[in-house]
Design a protein that fits this description.
Layout lengths: L8 H8 L1 H4 L4 E6 L4 E4 L1 H6 L11 H8 L3 H13 L2 E11 L2 E12 L9 E8 L1 H39 L4 H8 L10 E12 L2 H7 L2 H21 L3 E6 L2 E6 L7 H21 L1 H6 L8 E16 L4 E6 L1 H12 L5 E3 L1 H7 L3 E9 L8 E9 L2 H5 L5 E3 L4 E3 L6 H21 L1
Parallel strand pairs: 9-11
Antiparallel strand pairs: 1-2, 1-5, 3-4, 4-5, 6-8, 6-9, 7-8, 9-10, 11-13, 12-13, 14-15
């Protein structure tokens, strides 16, 4: 006789189930064939649709709860082969409300009481936890979408800023975007050095050249002149057809003398670059090449935003601007004329020749005008970059000085091609 024969099996099962009776989980106990023998009150309250589940086949109970077939198959397979089951997420709809449970079950083994051999388990309600996790995941997904949106908007703004930068001088562009408080920039009275240039007989050129070739000529000219102006610290005010207006002393200044010297250095470098590009322009159809005249004047100007509510232009106004324009129109082709004020600032460093005394249109008294030759310092002149070279056999002219490295790479490829060809012949 076994010890279990001395005990009532129902009482033993009730006693063994005592710990689950008041558990906050939905607990059950089934025999080895998965027929439910005991459930606690929470099981009935969690799943009121089941009614009395005593002696019910547990996989059928799961099916009645709406558990998926794959999870029921997993439960039966694991409980038979492994002896335990953990299904972390079981979705059950109760009273039109979706709830989420974890199902934990394990086989029990008791040598003394065979009727305790079976399966015990519990449903742990994780609905609140699942909702919080789902909400967190939703927030994370929204955060990712927001970040992607921000990145896309940033790319659009960067593209817009890049395009906008082409319409503004870098100094003006920087000044606008650093004005974080959104206030309008005020007008100011400053001593500036003004530069004006234009191409001689440009109107005749526009009447005789095809639009595409004309665009190549004028764009290459303006691009090269702009690069030099920016390298020398000038603020490009505007292009007026072929004419260029540049000023020194705003928004940044190195002092009146240094501003004037930088303006003259810019002018001389422009003149040098124009000579280097003549053959390139002649190949495009400008048979006689381009001739440019330049005028420079120094004096007090009003600088700031001028225009309408619809469109503003950051520019300079004042008699020095008019004088620079007049000097430019008086200059001979490929020459640079400056006024007396500019000459007084640069005469210690720059060789100038007194040209003539003129009364420009709009001015009431004669003005002494000087023609700029070059800086006195040989070291200064030798330090300028040249983009044309002529050797014994090869002449190289770089017509786009903004990408010298690309030109060097191209020359290297040409060298490699020649060496390859010479090696095979």
């Amino acid at each position: 006789m076994k010890i279990e024969d001395f005990f009532n099996d129902r009482n033993v099962i009730d006693l063994s189930f005592f710990n689950f009776r008041n558990a906050i989980t939905a607990a059950y106990f089934a025999d080895s064939k998965l027929h439910v023998l005991k459930v606690n009150e929470n099981f009935r309250s969690f799943f009121p649709i089941l009614g009395n589940v005593t002696n019910a086949y547990f996989p059928e109970v799961l099916e009645q709860l709406g558990v998926s077939g794959d999870q029921i198959d997993q439960f039966q397979r694991d409980i038979m082969e492994i002896g335990s089951v953990l299904i972390p997420e079981v979705k059950i709809r109760i009273d039109d409300v979706d709830r989420v449970y974890s199902l934990l079950s394990t086989r029990t083994q008791d040598d003394a009481f065979s009727y305790l051999n079976g399966v015990q388990g519990q449903f742990v309600d994780r609905t609140d936890e699942w909702n919080l996790r789902h909400e967190r995941e939703s927030l994370l997904e929204q955060k990712i979408r927001d970040r992607e949106t921000i990145e896309e908007k940033s790319r659009q703004l960067e593209s817009l800023a890049t395009r906008l930068a082409k319409y503004l001088s870098p100094q003006i562009y920087k000044s606008i975007f650093s004005n974080t408080d959104g206030s309008e920039q005020k007008h100011a009275r400053k001593n500036l050095t003004i530069f004006m240039s234009d191409i001689v007989k440009f109107t005749d050129l526009t009447d005789t050249m095809e639009p595409e070739r004309l665009a190549l000529v004028i764009n290459s000219y303006l691009s090269e002149m702009s690069s030099i102006a920016l390298e020398c610290g000038g603020t490009i005010d505007k292009f007026i057809g072929d004419a260029i207006l540049v000023f020194f002393g705003d928004p940044e200044t190195d002092g009146d003398t240094e501003d004037a010297l930088k303006c003259l250095e810019m002018s001389l470098r422009m003149r040098l670059r124009i000579k280097e590009l003549q053959k390139y322009w002649q190949k495009l159809g400008v048979s006689s090449g381009l001739e440019v005249r330049m005028g420079i004047a120094t004096g007090y100007c009003t600088v700031g935003n001028f225009g309408s509510q619809m469109r503003l232009d950051y520019t300079v106004l004042g008699s020095p601007v008019n004088l620079a324009a007049r000097l430019q129109s008086l200059a001979e082709p490929d020459s640079i004329l400056i006024d007396e004020t500019t000459h007084s600032l640069v005469e210690a460093n720059v060789e100038c020749k007194e040209s003539t005394s003129v009364t420009p249109k709009g001015f009431v008294r004669p003005l002494v005008v000087y023609e700029v030759k070059d800086f006195f310092s040989e070291e200064h002149r030798a330090g300028r970059r040249h983009f044309s070279r002529t050797g014994q056999r090869v002449q190289v002219s770089v017509f786009d000085s903004s990408d010298i490295h690309a030109a060097i790479e191209e020359l290297r490829r040409i060298q490699e091609d020649f060496e390859m060809q010479s090696g095979t012949t």
